[in-house]
Design goal:
Jelly Rolls, disordered N terminus, 7-stranded mixed beta sheet, 15 strands
């Protein structure tokens, strides 16, 4: 989706549960996945058509079961590519084996694109998101506070749908202004990143809009080449980042991007799950 000054494209998507039509927006400038506010949008999906089949009564929701995908695929089952009209060079994704486990490999060279999946998750019922990732290198000029540094070797996006009963009056006005122009859109996003310099735990306004919050999960080179297992309480993170109760989660995306810094990065993504407690799940 576009940063300030960019142009935008509407994308039609089918809600996996209700089949209702919604109008969603893709970035066309240099940035990634920004929510519609006063002219700045949250990047969103080329969504899946089939219904996500989950055991709602279970303790775990397997959103990204990459380990069960077929090696050699360009994307895991149930996921769709996220590309941007004005960024011709895309990050390449491939399902590969790493240490005997099937994962998704991303290779970015002055490029940007991602993989997305539509979901419908109550963050109060399933507050914990767990995943694993690995990077071969960091970006020298990545900087979460700058538009020209808005690149990361790995990102995990969680986006939220608009619920007027859970949105402050001021934020509702901003959302309504964007909705007039762009139609039905997500209301916000948490963006978990591996940063180069910012401290772990930092919550940073996205360089383009405060409707997207960057949360630093890993920082620096200490774990380069090693799998890092991550666990975050998305319910608590949303409340701390936005100061209000979170609405329903409506999307998950992964992305490795280097289009702003013009660098290169190689990274790997393991399974992504949501669960009812912080108890570790085997992957």
């Amino acid at each position: 989706m576009s940063k300030l000054g960019g142009s935008f494209k509407r994308v039609r998507a089918i809600d996996a549960r209700s089949r209702r039509r919604t109008t969603l927006v893709l970035k066309e400038g240099n940035s990634k996945m920004l929510i519609a506010t006063t002219g700045v949008l949250l990047a969103t999906w080329l969504l899946i058509a089939p219904t996500c089949l989950w055991a709602e009564s279970g303790a775990v929701l397997e959103v990204g079961k990459f380990s069960a995908s077929q090696v050699g695929q360009t994307m895991p089952d149930g996921w769709k590519p996220l590309t941007f009209k004005k960024i011709p060079k895309h990050t390449s994704y491939e399902v590969v084996k790493d240490g005997g486990v099937t994962i998704v490999k991303a290779a970015s060279e002055a490029s940007a694109s991602g993989l997305t999946k539509e979901v419908k998750i109550d963050p109060k019922e399933f507050p914990v998101v767990q995943w694993r990732w690995k990077v071969d290198n960091l970006l020298k000029h990545s900087d979460a506070t700058r538009k020209d540094g808005d690149d990361y070797p790995v990102r995990l996006y969680i986006t939220f749908e608009y619920d007027p009963e859970k949105v402050s009056f001021g934020k509702k006005l901003k959302y309504k202004a964007g909705q007039v122009i762009f139609g039905d859109i997500p209301i916000g996003a948490i963006n978990y990143v591996w940063e180069t310099k910012a401290p772990v735990g930092a919550i940073i306004d996205n360089a383009y809009t405060d409707f997207v919050k960057m949360i630093v999960v890993e920082s620096g080179p200490q774990k380069i080449g090693l799998w890092a297992d991550e666990s975050r309480n998305i319910y608590e993170d949303y409340k701390q980042a936005f100061g209000e109760e979170p609405p329903m989660i409506n999307g998950v995306a992964i992305m490795s991007d280097t289009d702003n810094t013009k660098e290169q990065a190689t990274a790997y993504y393991g399974d992504i799950v949501f669960q009812k407690s912080a108890k570790a799940v085997s992957r």
